[in-house]
Amino acid sequence: MRTSIDHLPFDKQRELARVVEILHEEFEDALKGSSAEFKKKGRILKIILFGSYARGDWVDEPHTMKGYRSDFDLLVVVNNRKLTDFATYWYKASDRLLRDRGVSTQVGLIVHSRREVNTALRQGQYFFSDIRRQGIALYELDDEPLSEPKPQSSADALKSARKHFQNRFPGAAGLLDTSKYALAKGRNNEAAFLLHQAVEHAYSALLLTVTSYSPPSHNLNFLRTLAEERDRRMTEAWPRDQQRFRAWFNALNEAYVKARYSEHYQISVEALEWLGSQTSIMHSLVETICREHLEKLAGQVQVA
Question: What's the whole-model pTM score?
Answer without folding.
Answer: 0.89
